[in-house]
Design a protein that fits this description.
alpha/beta, about 15% strand
Length: about 170
């Protein structure tokens, strides 16, 4: 994890030197350390960068607090992308992500403060069936999202690869 002051120095440099107005933080754990996230957000505000940029982040929402979402919005965050991955409760239990209800609560709060929270979607998760895939497609459709799924690839010697072999979804050995 990088020092918040270093992150802020780099943001300030690209904004002031190169005129950058949009930034994407590609950090799956950006919000897991609330103090770290808070320091970055408060720094963006204190340095006067918040009104000059809009930024997005790809991160997890596990354990998120509404106060932090509000601070992120105040600091210029324009959207959060999160790895919901599936719209099936059954599949959510398999991949240990947020429950669908938790996601919907975060999304509703985000909507109420003008901070969109957009879920990622993966087809082909281990154990997925036609029924659970269609359940996901319906869930995302109900949310009004265009379905642009990522496709799960079961790389050899990974947990998913071993599980796919055990379920006889693919041939091979661990």
């Amino acid at each position: 994890k990088r020092d918040p002051e270093q992150v802020l120095d780099e943001v300030q440099e690209v904004v002031e030197t190169y005129g950058v107005r949009r930034i994407m933080f590609q950090d799956q754990i950006f919000t897991l350390d609330r103090k770290h996230t808070q320091a970055i957000c408060e720094g963006l505000i204190a340095r006067g960068l918040a009104p000059k940029i809009e930024w997005r982040v790809q991160t997890r929402l596990n354990g998120m607090k509404n106060e932090l979402l509000r601070l992120m919005k105040d600091a210029g965050c324009a959207e959060i992308y999160t790895g919901l991955e599936t719209g099936s409760d059954e599949m959510q239990g398999e991949i240990s992500k947020l429950t669908l209800d938790e996601f919907l609560e975060y999304r509703a709060f985000g909507d109420s403060i003008g901070l969109p929270i957009s879920p990622n979607f993966i087809f082909g998760l281990p154990g997925e069936t036609y029924e659970t895939a269609m359940e996901s497609a319906r869930f995302y459709h109900q949310l009004g999202f265009a379905i642009v799924p990522n496709v799960n690839i079961t790389y050899p010697q990974t947990r998913y690869h071993g599980e796919a072999i055990e379920r006889e979804e693919i041939a091979g050995n661990n």
